[in-house]
Amino acid sequence: MGKGTVRLKDIADRTGFSTNTVSLALRDSPRIPAETRELIRQAAASLNYLPNFIAKSLVSRETKTIGLVLTDITNPTLTHTAQAIELALAERGYATLFATSNNKLSEEKKVLELVRSRQVDGILIYPTSHRQIDHIRALRLANYPVVMLVGDPDSGLDAVCVDESRGAYKATKHLIDIGHKRIGLIDGANPLGNREKRQGYVEALNEAGLEFDPALAVDPRGHSVIRGYLAMEALMATPAQPTAVFSANDSLALGALRWCIKHKLTVPDDMAIIGFDNIEFAEHAVVPLSSVNYPVDIVTELAVERLMSLITAGDELPTPRVTQIDPEVIVRDSTLTKG
User: Fold this and answer.
1) 66 with 135, same domain?
2) Are residues 79 and 94 in the same domain?
3) Tens-digit pLDDT profile for residues 87-98
4) C-alpha distances out from residue 247 to 77, 265, 269, Å
5) How far apart are CA 96 and CA 54, in angstroms?
6) Is 0.85 topped by the overall pTM?
7) Are residues 221 and 126 in the same domain?
8) Is there a domain that residue 71 lies in?
9) What's the CA gap between 123 and 101, in Å, rounded?
10) How far apart are the first and last CA of the chain?
11) How many CB atoms lie within 10 A of CB 112?
């Protein structure tokens, strides 16, 4: 359904309530019974209804503002990407409205509504869950310009992203190629349905004829350095300890590196470590850290260009397109040799 085509009257006709009742229900007015409000909200969702002020902004394009929804502003890669996106949009005459979900799906839904309420012309988003994206898909179905910065080719949504599965495969294969057979995985994304890095890790093991050992896959329950430190401690408590570790981001890998140094393990001779994202701190760690590179400039430019094309598309958005960038492994001291 095109922009601005669904009215309050359409929802009223669908539900049998008056337009005033529909309006109050969609504003969550306590004057309307909860059961009625829910029935009206469901009807609005089925019709891909957007509030009038959103529809008007989509038609006028006068706000010249883009919403950017991040999972975690403290993540160095996301901070760098946010800065690059802001600059790229400014060059095109757009302001950026930032919001953060703090890696919570419920918060993501709230901030999306907040961003939309500010009448932005389009949205760039790092989804908290790569699989639970119906609330984002609803925007696309309503002809709303939205581009994800993490993507699934089968999502039915526009996305520009690094191929995380391929990157994890390359990182794990690198560890295998330098002689490691017991490779630990520190990755907290799987409970959210973000399986790409784990899939790449397992694929590389299978290709090399190595069996996946669940005891070597640790959920750090976070993404920070201290979470990586604690995850490394858990890995080293297993009966058959790993000789190498792949971490889903560089902060976790730096935590693992810190654990090794504190416990007198030499990196890379006693333990090889590789991260993901290639943040600035990785290169300047006490043992320079190998990492899968996240090409911020490429992702930023392609994502902004795609969003601009959606904004100027008119009443019907083009077929969704997913662009996945094949990342490279940056080899540094933390994996240069094996004992």
Assistant:
1) yes
2) yes
3) 999 999 999 999
4) 15, 17, 18
5) 17
6) no
7) no
8) yes
9) 14
10) 62
11) 22
Residue-number span of the structural domain to which 31 is assigned: 8-46
Distance CA 75, CA 223 (A): 8
Do residues 56 and 4 make contact, with C-beta atoms less than 8 angstroms apart? yes
Query: What tokens does 204 get?
Result: 């590389």
Residue 319 DSSP code: P
State the total domains in the chain.
Answer: 3
For residue 178, the tally of other CB atoms under 10 A from its CB is: 15
Tens digit of each residue's pLDDT (9 = 90 or more) over 139-151: 888 888 999 998 8
**In contact, 224 and 251? CB cutoff 8 Å:** yes
Q: Provide the strand spans (E) within the chain.
A: 65-70, 95-100, 122-125, 146-148, 158-162, 183-186, 217-218, 244-247, 272-277, 290-293, 322-325, 329-330
User: Does 326 score more than 90 pLDDT?
Assistant: yes
Task: Give the whole-angstrom CA distance, residue 30 versus residue 177.
Answer: 63
Contacts of 226 (CB under 8 A, 6+ apart): 255
CA distance 41 to 35: 10
pLDDT band at 338 (very low <50, low <70, confident <90, very high): very low
- 169 and 281: one domain? yes
Supply φ then ψ for residue 13, to 5 degrees. -65, -40
Residues 186 and 269 occupy one common structural domain: yes
Burial of 177: CB neighbours in 10 Å, binned 0-12, 13-18, 19+? exposed
Complete edge-to-edge strand list for the sheet that includes strand 217-218: 217-218, 183-186, 244-247, 272-277, 290-293, 329-330
CA distance 251 to 126: 18
Sheet containing 322-325: order of strands: 95-100, 65-70, 122-125, 146-148, 158-162, 322-325
